């Protein structure tokens, strides 16, 4: 549950949270922005199956669902995703402990179909492929390995892709860091990854001009060695997805993110 404190111009000077007013109009804009992303917010999360926007009735004083989205998987897919989530949790534990290096993390992949539906009649089905772990022949940059050993980088080699089934859409596909990020990628699929994000808004990928920057190197490797193999799996399962994830697509993603970050 999120609670947003409303502050008028008379209250903001005494607020310990912020000195800027936050009125009902701003709250409504924030809610509408969140509402527009709610359906796809369930694509790459493991344990959340429902999100609701509630209002309190002026008549009864009781909350009701103003907007709600749900995610449904088959029992078999639910079990597969649960096992994958357990493996991710164990991988996180042994990496933090230093029991294994990034190269030694055994890759694990899961594919499943998730049905997304809202209470206004909109339904979408997605084929999702997720992976944890790099390929055996993946070359982990020295700066990344060094950052992991020094515990300066606590991210997991985890990513995935999702494509719409039944009625393919020409709408722009988004980048995700488990939840949607505010830019598109130019690719034919949604892309998810445990990316390094900027320190401020946490809504843009980490950018650096330094060649030895471990965060930038991590993001590039995640795209090449985790996301791209997921796309290959998706092509095998759904061969009608004709566009191949080539090396230039990695550059396209990075270019798209950098352009959006500069706006």
Describe this structure in words.
This protein is α+β, with helices and mostly antiparallel strands and 263 residues long. It has a domain at 72-237. It contains five helices and eight strands; from the N terminus they run H-E-E-H-E-E-H-E-E-E-E-H-H. The protein has helices spanning 24-38, 75-97, 142-149, 214-237, 247-262, and strands spanning 50-56, 63-72, 108-118, 123-132, 158-164, 174-177, 179-184, 190-193. The chain has an eight-stranded mixed beta sheet with strand order 1-2-3-4-5-8-6-7, sandwiched between helices. Strand 1 and strand 2 form a beta hairpin. The longest helix is centred in the C-terminal third of the chain and has 24 residues, at 214-237. It starts with 23 loop residues before the first helix and ends with a helix.
Task: Write a brief caption for the model.
The chain is of the alpha+beta class and 263 residues long.
Order of secondary-structure elements: HEEHEEHEEEEHH
**Approximately how much beta-strand content do the residues carry?**
15-25%
Report the strand count: 8
Termini separation comes to 31 Å
Summed over residues and divided by their number, the pLDDT gives a mean of 81
Protein name: Sacsin/Nov domain-containing protein
Pfam families: SACS
InterPro entries: SACS/Nov_dom (IPR058210), Sacsin_chaperone_reg (IPR052972)
